[in-house]
Amino acid sequence: MESDALIALHWYDVVGLGGTLSILLAFVLLQTRRLSGTGLVYQLLNLFGAAGILVSLFGTFNLSVFLLELAWVIVSLYGIVRSLRERGRGAG
Q1: What is the pTM of this model?
Q2: If pLDDT is split at 50, 70 and 90, which confidence band does 4 have?
Q3: Is 33 left (phi over 0), alpha (psi -120 to 50) or beta?
Q4: Which of 17, 35, 56, 91 could serve as 42's disulfide partner, Cβ 3.0–4.6 Å?
Q5: Within the chain, where are the H helices?
């Protein structure tokens, strides 16, 4: 009976949990003013987090979560490109 209490996690579940932790970490760091919402690190944490959650959908697909995380990836990529362009302008 003891094994019934254990949760069996697949590789995609672990990746999804990592993604969730990444997004939560980004949010906590933003709220505690340790990261800027327009900074590269914040955007990368969100990108990797959303991608991890998308991977977790290999286990059980959910259209709502898929669309939310896909949008999260797109917005994060936009933020990364913007941050890199701003860095490039500042260096010159």
Answers
A1: 0.87
A2: low
A3: left
A4: 35
A5: 11-31, 40-56, 63-91
